[in-house]
């Protein structure tokens, strides 16, 4: 989700295989076609704008019935590894596994497999007390060795997947007994960063850690019953689950649909009970048709990613002009049917670094953009010496790229869209073989330096900007956030400094938040629980 998947390596990795209605050639570049399609897209989007959606509450007071819950999804999972936090895996992770702690929708930490945690006065360690009476799906009792298995795997660059970068602050760990684990840090770590680690950390059965990609090894509310690759899977309730009264539904049947339209048609026909992680456009239409639509706090932020080591983007003034060249309202409307929020910083409103004033300061303004373009000293030919890489398999990316293409034409910059499909796009994206591209980033609602888990914002080993990092002020700003403690003016100053540096360096231009993990359900469904990362929490869902 997976924009960048909540590290989420890249949302584009997941979306790259989704077909869209329009047919295009892989590697195709075009200009006139993009401008013509933009006009069509704007007209279509105008009829889809809707009011904000209500967030689903946790299970309602009324008693819910069990049964078979039929869920439509659009992606095949990558594997069962809980440290592979890719959006394609979001519908199974919280159903096969439990974390040490959970966040409520408003970011409050609550116990899960850890019943208590104590951060040392010097912030150089945290001691976790583990829940008793829990077993893994294999029947193995949950103890400290399950946490150690997850820590060991997460700290391994070859096996740690999306958890590896989060483990960078960890020095070592000890387990004085079966119910206690102490995690030691290399340096003092802010409280919220420690809590993010505990929430990110999912214990793994020590007996199954080596085969976890192919065989689930968790403590979660459901067990894997069967799977048909490319078609779906069936989960059955864990009879030994530790949460009283959960899971509500005794069975979940996931069906994979190749297209969003097919999934929504199945919902409307009654063949399935809900769709998870469908498109904003379909959600908007079905909301108006009377279906329940639930969004959550775990937004992604769409970012115009700039490779500042190439072409005209080496020029800071040229990059800064894009803060004003982004028609954020148009992008949100055309790409996401108005579902989301215009932003000029890579934060969701739940982030402590969120600052709404930047949206007004850096609003769409062609005159300010023209002034910065002039200050850049670049010739018109130099300003046009680049292409915008586009994920041709993701319709929102195509649409919003067309918006930018049309805007640039208004200031005399005529560019081609380099549309690539599938693996060809993913390869260019992850290796930094592009001038500019749109891509979602995750972790934007958590501790601010977690944004550095996303490739364009990495402070070291950045696949796009390489080493040494070409923006040392940004690297220093992230380090300052990581080493400033408490809740006073110094902490706020570190966030303010990071925001100023992000806008000044302008190697990433955020445009809007957007929904990932949207749930569209029939009126027979109840008990939707919003998740901080918008993962699917099915254990509370039942029938009214």
TrEMBL record:
Domain Solute-binding protein family: 108-444
Membrane-spanning segments: 33-55
Record's subcellular location: Periplasm
Main localization category: periplasm
GO process annotations (BP): peptide transport
InterPro entries, per database record: SBP_5 (IPR039424), SBP_5_dom (IPR000914)
Keywords, alphabetical: Membrane, Signal, Transmembrane, Transmembrane helix, Transport
Name by which UniProt lists this protein: Peptide/nickel transport system substrate-binding protein
């Amino acid at each position: 989700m997976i924009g960048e998947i909540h590290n989420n390596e890249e949302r584009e990795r997941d979306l790259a295989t989704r077909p869209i209605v329009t047919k295009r050639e892989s590697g195709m570049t075009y200009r006139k076609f993009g401008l013509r399609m933009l006009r069509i897209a704007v007209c279509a989007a105008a009829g889809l704008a809707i009011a904000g959606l209500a967030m689903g509450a946790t299970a309602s007071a009324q008693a819910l019935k069990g049964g078979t819950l039929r869920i439509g999804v659009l992606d095949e999972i990558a594997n069962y590894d809980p440290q592979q936090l890719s959006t394609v895996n979001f519908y199974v992770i919280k159903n096969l596994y439990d974390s040490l702690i959970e966040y409520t929708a408003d970011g409050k930490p609550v116990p899960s497999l850890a019943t208590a945690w104590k951060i040392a006065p010097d912030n150089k360690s945290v001691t976790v007390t583990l829940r008793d009476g829990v077993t893994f799906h294999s029947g193995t009792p949950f103890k400290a060795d399950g946490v150690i298995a997850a820590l060991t795997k997460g700290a391994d660059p070859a096996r740690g997947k999306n958890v590896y970068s989060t483990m960078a602050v960890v020095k070592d760990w000890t387990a004085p007994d079966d119910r206690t684990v102490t995690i030691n840090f290399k340096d003092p770590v802010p409280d919220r960063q420690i809590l993010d680690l505990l929430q990110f950390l999912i214990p793994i059965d020590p007996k199954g850690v080596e085969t976890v990609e192919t065989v689930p090894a968790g403590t979660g509310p459901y067990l894997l019953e069967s799977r048909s690759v490319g078609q779906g899977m069936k989960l059955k309730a864990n009879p030994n689950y530790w949460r009283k009264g959960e899971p509500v539904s005794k069975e979940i049947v996931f069906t994979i649909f190749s297209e969003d339209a097919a999934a929504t048609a199945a919902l409307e026909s009654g063949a399935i009970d809900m769709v998870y992680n469908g498109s904003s456009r379909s959600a908007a239409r079905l909301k108006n048709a009377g279906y329940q639509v639930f969004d959550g706090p775990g937004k992604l932020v769409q970012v115009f990613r700039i490779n500042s080591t190439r072409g005209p983007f080496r020029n800071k003034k040229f990059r800064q002009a894009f803060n004003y060249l982004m028609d954020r309202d148009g992008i949100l409307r055309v790409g996401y049917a108005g579902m989301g929020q215009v932003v000029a910083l890579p934060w969701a409103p739940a982030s402590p670094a969120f600052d709404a004033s930047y949206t007004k300061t850096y609003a769409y303004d062609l005159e300010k953009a023209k002034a910065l373009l002039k200050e850049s000293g670049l010739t018109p030919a130099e300003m046009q010496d680049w292409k915008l890489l586009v994920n041709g398999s993701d319709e929102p990316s195509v649409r919003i790229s067309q918006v930018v293409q049309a805007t640039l034409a208004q200031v005399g910059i005529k560019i081609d869209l380099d549309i690539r499909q599938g693996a060809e796009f993913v390869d260019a994206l992850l290796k930094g073989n592009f001038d500019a591209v749109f891509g979602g980033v995750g972790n934007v609602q958590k501790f601010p330096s977690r944004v550095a888990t996303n490739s364009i914002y990495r402070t070291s080993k950045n696949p796009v900007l390489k080493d040494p990092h070409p923006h040392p002020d940004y690297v220093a700003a992230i380090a300052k956030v990581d080493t400033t403690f408490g809740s006073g003016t110094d902490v706020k100053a570190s966030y303010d400094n990071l925001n100023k540096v992000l806008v000044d360096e302008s190697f990433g231009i955020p445009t809007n938040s957007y929904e990932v993990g949207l749930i569209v359900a029939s009126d027979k469904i109840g008990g939707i629980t919003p998740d901080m990362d918008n993962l699917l929490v099915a254990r509370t869902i039942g029938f009214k």
